[in-house]
Specification:
7-stranded mixed β-sheet, binds zinc ion, alpha/beta
């Protein structure tokens, strides 16, 4: 199994020189298990994934399951720019998200409506379906996806991807401080090989002026990995104002509390299981 990061930034794309080592594209993570492709969120990194898939597959059809955590811009902005949606009828995309606030189909239609976007959804030649998921469990091919609501304005869904090669948890856009949600995210992350977690703010930024904005900070991310027994923490959803140097210092400080911490960077790949990857 391979986890690849195509977009790691929160809130808005930040294509600035001082951010480019970690990357400026918004949320998009790909999980590849054998030939199956699972995507988590469609921020601007989703466009880069589309280019990568076109290059990799050429004339062959592309099929993927795409999970959308919620509909804030940084999780959907890449959708109209995902090339394989337009390419050919053999391509197939199965979108999964909660329609508690709105269906993804109507979000996408509205996102592409006049006068916001010049291309209509009818130009998308691929097959695409939308499935509603709520809190619970979903079995697909060789994997099980467990979902849990996170603490975020207008809601956000966290995902636990269980496979025979390892367990990955994608839990972004989550604010600490609500006892029920705090417990729930730790349960979602329990014993995972990889925990991808919202670390948008510095703890002092959060305390001073970001309470109620729906995000976490690296110190809480460390608490979640340690208290859930997950093995490795990947800090994710970097704040637009956090430069590469700032993120470097966050990782250094976080490692004083827990050794297995990395910050997500565009293009970064993690192979599971760790033992098999290490033997290669
Ligand atoms: Zn976000
Ligand atoms: Zn959000």
């Amino acid at each position: 199994m391979r986890v690849k990061f195509w977009g790691v930034r929160g809130s808005t794309p930040t294509p600035h020189a001082e951010n480019m080592r970690y990357g400026g594209n918004t949320s998009c993570v790909e999980v590849r298990l054998g030939d199956e492709i699972y995507v988590f969120d469609c921020g601007t990194g989703f466009r880069s994934l589309g280019m990568g898939l076109r290059h990799e597959f050429g004339p062959r059809p592309v099929r993927a399951h795409v999970f959308v955590s919620h509909f804030h811009w940084d999780h959907i902005q890449g959708l109209p720019f995902f090339g394989p949606l337009y390419d050919k009828p053999e391509n197939k995309f199965i979108f999964h998200c909660s329609s508690r606030t709105r269906s993804l189909k109507s979000v996408l239609e509205e996102q592409m409506a006049t006068p916001y976007f010049p291309v209509a959804m009818t130009e998308m030649k691929s097959q695409y379906d939308f499935y509603n998921i709520e809190e619970g469990k979903l079995k697909l091919d060789d994997i099980t996806i467990k979902t849990a609501w996170l603490n975020h304005p207008q809601g956000c869904m966290g995902f636990r991807i269980e496979t025979k090669e390892g367990v990955v948890v994608y839990a972004t856009d989550n604010e600490p401080g609500d006892a029920a949600f705090d417990k729930s995210v730790r349960k979602l992350a329990e014993g995972a090989d990889i925990l991808i977690y919202d670390a948008q703010y510095l703890p002092e930024e959060y305390a001073a002026r970001r309470r109620g904005w729906g995000h976490s900070h690296w110190r809480e991310a460390v608490n979640v990995v340690m208290e859930s027994g997950a093995k490795e923490l990947i800090l994710f959803h970097h704040d637009p104002e956090h430069t590469d140097a700032c993120i470097d210092s966050v990782v250094k400080e976080a490692r004083n509390h827990y050794p297995k911490v990395r910050a997500a960077a565009e293009g970064m790949e993690i192979n599971l299981p760790f033992s098999a990857a290490a033997k290669k």
